[in-house]
Predict the 3D structure of the following.
Amino acid sequence: MIEIKHLYKRFGRFLALNDFSLNVESGELFGFVGSNGAGKTTTMRICVGLLKADGGEVLIDGQKMLSNHRALAEKVGYVPDYFGVYKNLTASEYLKFFSNAYGIYGKESDKLAGELLDLVNLSNKSDTDVNALSRGMKQRLCLARGLVHNPDILFLDEPASGLDPKARYELKEILKNLSAMGKTIIISSHILPELAEMCTSVGIIDRGHLVLQGSIEEIHRAAAMSSPLNVVVNEAQIDDVFAILKANPFVQKVTAQGSILKIVFTGNKEEEGKMLASLVQSNISVNSFYREEGSLESLFMQIVGSSQKNAGQRR
Ligand SMILES: Nc1ncnc2c1ncn2[C@@H]1O[C@H](COP(=O)(O)OP(=O)(O)OP(=O)(O)O)[C@@H](O)[C@H]1O
Ligand SMILES: [Mg+2]
């Protein structure tokens, strides 16, 4: 299990991570979502030991990691969001170079490079110069590089950005395979629906702070609840309906569009049922009563939007 506890990071006077905490269970394929500048890369770089935090701790299976670089390097792999330029190296040589860096040489290194290229579907490109690979292929080669030392945990920073749908699909399949092999994978993106398709749970970061975390089912439920409740009544009874709704503590806002009332409702299903019953008991003829289908994108915008409204000073 990875426990990220109360991380703080300042760049000059700018507070990039502000009491950031997150737990990820072993074996999860965890989606780490946030807008540009939210703090995803900063968090990942701290977790893999490339950046020093100003406060806080990262524990893996209960062991403190930030002051233990050797253990961190063994357990964790990192795939950054950029691909450096390497001159005159083929894909296979590139992986052998990194395996050498981990003390793996000779035949063992050749075998490992072959296996990793196979794993990321690049066997046919083993003799191609790395700079001649397409973006999607470079992403997959980077992923293979992150796996050279067979880490238990893999951090991937926006691996799907700039990939076409086919390359995204292939990447997802590779990540699912790695997950099935028992690895814990943390993958960042600024697109919640994209991560929701493959992840087992998701955390949303905004302005350096975790604002929501849950299993993928919980996130879908939250999305469904975030959409308005629609009630269709006879227009002649609209004023009576407004009065009843106003008295309900779970009703935050009501807007009328002809005979359709759109209600921002914060209660659960049971409370929804009670509200319907209260309308019927007051002799309102309810023609229809339904939730609009909630989208993950609208949930994300709602969460990020509302936390920005409530945010205090960061500088
Ligand atoms: N080396 C640095 N010096 C100064 N500010 C930095 C530095 N690195 C990051 N920041 C700032 O910290 C904040 C978080 O940056 P970070 O790169 O972690 O965001 P991100 O969530 O990865 O965004 P993106 O989706 O654009 O990759 C940003 O406001 C960024 O400008
Ligand atoms: Mg980033």
Remarks:
- DSSP finds eleven helices and 14 strands in the chain.
